[in-house]
Design brief:
Order of helices and strands: HEHHEHEHHEHH
Largest sheet: 4 strands, antiparallel
Shape: globular
Strand content: 15-25%
Structural class: alpha+beta
Number of domains: 1
Distance between the termini: 32 Å
Radius of gyration: 19 Å
Number of strands: 4
């Protein structure tokens, strides 16, 4: 029979498991510093809407500055939580992203974009623009991050960073938390939601 004691017990068990994550062997942390979107190549497309130089033809900077740091967690195929943090930009990020989404509506190469955080649609002060996005990946992490940078098929939703971040000299940090311990992996979605509520990112919804 389920009653109040059941809730108290299960909550205590979950909190005990979450506290275990502090151990070094449970989480592998990777930080990629100062990723400058201005240095990345913006893809061009053919008449069919496909990459004019193939799916990997524009990824040189991505592979050098980002993918190279994600090879180990991608090979291990462990689930991850990742956070895009804003370092600097030339202009308002939310406004720029909204304008980009609007521009895609009439584009033959329309790209599927991540949703805007509903709590942020009224605008942001400058100090509120520090966390861009919080996400999770249950498959190799590189496969998800490459989508966010815009170097994947247009129908897969992501931040599409290179198409709008390049023009405003957006600089970001990427934080990746790899869940190594099998016991911790069942809490992946819970922790992602906790991070989302706590960090209140500019983009994304839960």
């Amino acid at each position: 029979m389920i009653h109040k004691d059941f809730f108290d017990y299960e909550l205590s068990e979950a909190l005990r498991d979450l506290a275990f994550f502090k151990a070094d062997e449970s989480i592998n942390y990777i930080k990629i510093h100062d990723i400058c979107l201005s240095e990345f190549t913006k893809p061009t497309f053919n008449k069919e809407g496909r990459f004019s130089e193939g799916p990997r033809g524009f990824r040189n900077e991505y592979e050098k500055y980002v993918q190279s740091h994600l090879m180990e967690p991608s090979k291990s195929r462990n689930p991850c939580i990742y956070i895009f943090e804003v370092v600097e930009s030339d202009t308002d990020i939310l406004r720029t992203y909204v304008d980009f989404i609007d521009s895609q509506k009439a584009s033959p190469n329309r790209r599927n974009c991540s949703s805007i955080n509903l709590n942020r649609k009224k605008g942001l002060n400058k100090h509120e623009q520090s966390i861009l996005y919080v996400g999770k990946s249950e498959k190799p992490i590189d496969g998800r991050i490459v989508v966010h940078f815009g170097y994947y098929e247009k129908g897969v939703a992501g931040l599409q960073l290179v198409y709008w971040g390049k023009d405003i000299n957006l600089k970001i940090n990427l934080h990746v938390f790899e869940f190594i311990d099998k016991k911790s992996q069942r809490y992946l979605e819970v922790i992602e939601k906790l991070f989302f509520v706590q960090l209140n990112p500019i983009i994304g919804k839960r």
